[in-house]
Amino acid sequence: MSGAKETPRQKMIGMMYLVLTALLALNVSKEILNAFVIVEAGLNTTNSNFDGKNGVLYDKFKKQLNDNKTKTLPWYTKAMDVKKRSDELCKLVDDIRSELYLKVQKLPSKEVSDTFKLKNLDSKDNYDIPTHYLLGETPEEPKADAKAIELKEAIIKFKQEILKNPTGLTPEQAKKYEQEKSNIKLGLNTDDVYSSNDEKVVHWEYNNFDHTTMAADMCIFSGIKNDIKNAESDVVGALLKGVNSEDFSFDAVEAKVVAPTSYIMAGEEYTADIFVSAHSSTQDPEVLIGRVDSTEKKKLKIIGTGEKVNVVAGVGKYTVRTGAEGLQNYDGLINVKGPDGAIKAYPFHGEYMVAKPSMAVSPTKMNVFYIGVPNPVDISVAGAAPSDVVATLTGAQGAVKSLGQGHYEVNVSGGTECDINVSIKQKNTSKSMGKQHFRVKKVPSPNASFAGVTGDGAVSAAELASAGGVIPKLDDFVFDLKFPVVSWNMSMNINGLWMDAAGNGPGITADQRNMLLKAKKGGRVIIESVYVMAPEGKRKITGCVLKVK
Fold first, then answer.
1. Does residue 160 share a domain with residue 37?
2. Which letter, b or e, does each residue of 223-239 get, where b requires 16 or more Cβ atoms within 10 Å of its Cβ?
3. 538 beta partners
């Protein structure tokens, strides 16, 4: 069997052990072993950070499940299985570490705990008990029930199970997920390796645990948990991308009718957009208005000739002048040509209410008012001059400002809902025309972006080196708002030690720049604790995680 190269973590532990052995041979104080305490603490911090990142992924999955259970369930079920297997493998590592801790510390209790810390261990330099416990009496050829072999087999099974595709995928989904999985590098290598100390190929168990001190073993266990949680993060992230992948198929298409308003005045035009939820950019569908003959469910058709609707970029533009008051209904079909050339019809139904002229209040950008920004609103009363219309705000802190010609600005500073009250001036009095209810919300938070990455993403060392700092990004919002960065924090694992550096303002500091220069392939840069100045004051926003490629 050919041996694989030693991992960076194995090389690090091996070098530390060689240095330790040499120092002990020189009768150096055992306090030098406390250096391993720092390594273990850094690895444990990294594990905690992975727990936080993975928690964000699972929260996103739950939101997707609430939004679309049918589409998300296969991916969510697999993600929960990956989490369960990750938790079980981490528990096995904790149990082995705790049992070994009790043996080395010579504690009578049989209780196992994942809270045992290296800094509290007296015999950090003991290697006889760990070697015997993990490998048995013959380290080079341990028995099948040796703890190190149990751990290795559990790691191998974990990697095999989490990489299996979710059940219930379509062939196209499975193909796309296989492509996504090809980018995942799980780590957790358990192959035989060439040992420079022994000058031969040795098995994973022997290479990691033969005559290693308890201090080194504790760090190895923390490192293994680090790799487990990293693998969990990468696989769950790939599953989440699977939910969001484009998987258009004609049997999932529904016809849609979207109108700017369904309540209009007599004599005005009713306008609606009629379309399928996805369309070809090279071929428009055919949209027909008329009574639908559904006698044959697989062959729907319009009774008579029907009214053909003009189609622009896949959207039918339906316009009709209204006359009679009351509820008006219409039906029709959208005919779509599939990849095989066959025509498939999708029925739709639309309705609108025609009413007598009355007061109208319509927001020009949204159906809510946002705190701290000027919300534009058009207010008009049929038969009344704009100068005679009076609008006031109740139910929330704020005011309505007239800009002239029926245009207004609503400014709110607090509350959760409000009413716009409209009246018209009449000689010596005024007449109420009604009110319109609105919700009041804070403007949404932007997401922190660093080196072009928002959320999670991969970057090259060159991109990191040229990064200028944190940029808040708020996409698809009706207002063009700026969110000045107040402060933020950068965290990295450098040579096994978790380090962080804070920054004030958006720009990167010298300390942070020096940290980025030490970033290695496969390492992660965490941007967190990002505070910006929002319209209502200082606010914390979501950071991002970058993986060096």
1. yes
2. bbbbbbbbbbbbbbbbb
3. 533
Domain count, the chain: 4
pTM over 0.70: no
The answer to whether residues 503 and 487 touch, using CB atoms and an 8 Å cutoff, is yes
| pLDDT band with cut points at 50, 70 and 90 for residue 412 | very high
The residues near 325 (Cβ < 8 Å, ≥ 6 apart) are: 266, 354, 355, 356
pLDDT at residue 24, rounded to an integer: 43
Tell me which of 218, 244, 270 is where a domain ends: 244
Q: Is residue 2 part of a domain?
A: no
Please tell me whether residues 492 and 531 are part of one structural domain. yes
Q: Tell me, what amino acid is at 113?
A: S
3-state secondary structure of 219: helix
Query: Alpha-carbon distance 209 to 219, whole Å?
Result: 11
> Which residue segment(s) compose the domain that 384 sits in?
361-440
100: three-class secondary structure by DSSP: helix
Strands 537-541 and 524-534: antiparallel
Whether residues 402 and 463 share a domain: the answer is: no
More confident residue, 155 or 255: 155
- Helices 69-105 and 147-162, axial angle in degrees (round to 10): 170
Clarify whether residues 100 and 17 are in a common domain: yes
All residues at 6 or more sequence positions from 151 whose CB lies less than 8 Å from its CB, including other chains = 92, 93, 96, 224
Query: Do residues 291 and 331 lie in contact, with contact meaning Cβ atoms separated by under 8 Å?
Result: yes
The CATH number linked to 283 is: 2.60.40.10
Distance CA 87, CA 91 (A): 6
Whether 290 and 337 map to the same domain: the answer is: yes
State pLDDT tens for residues 146-185.
888 889 898 999 999 999 999 888 888 888 888 888 888 8
